[in-house]
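Throughout this chapter, every protein is written as a compact record of paired, labelled lines. The reader may check this reading against the record printed directly beneath this paragraph:
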Amino acid sequence: MLDHDDPGVTVADVAWERFAPLFTLARPSRLFHGVPAARQAIEAARGPAEDTGTDEAAALRRELAALPEDERVERLLALVRAHVAAVLHYPAPEAVEPDRPFKELGFDSIAAVELRNRLRAATGLSLPTTVVFDYPTPRTLAGHLLTEVDPGEADAAHPASGHLDELEAALAGLRRRSAARRSGEPVAGPGVEVHRHRAGDR
């Protein structure tokens, strides 16, 4: 058809939510500017994580906050391996070798986008579509997720939780100064200069 310069109409059923983000993975393209469904798919792929994973992400952050620091990366590695196994149809997460590159595990561009979408929902992070290529093994990806997830946010609803030590220290200082005033002792504190005078000194 192209060889003979003959115009023609082709009808195709395109899964834009899969095709458009992959087509623009390396660089943006103006090809889809006139296709609303494609534009929406591209914007959704680049945007923040969907609300559907909010509860799951909040639960994960609370779980990480309760774990010792040296166990958090292993928890995230287990999460990554579970989703990799689901995307690639492995029999179990244990079949996913943690230090084997994603490409060797069987990843292509479509699988990379699917894994990114799963991890976005699970963690609440706005991960790029290239995250599998930027962090090429399950272990390095888990380490990256740990640096992005802030376990302290699980306690964000209690604004004073991060300042308890400061409050306790301030209250202890107030109690000491109050006791010193009652006993007639000189009161010392920040910005207070204490001078002791003996009888007969001027």
Observations:
- The chain has nine helices and no strands.
- Confidence is low (pLDDT under 50) at residues 153-162, 190-194.
- Residues 73 and 147 are 9 Å apart (CA to CA).
- Residues 69-88 form the longest helix (20 residues).
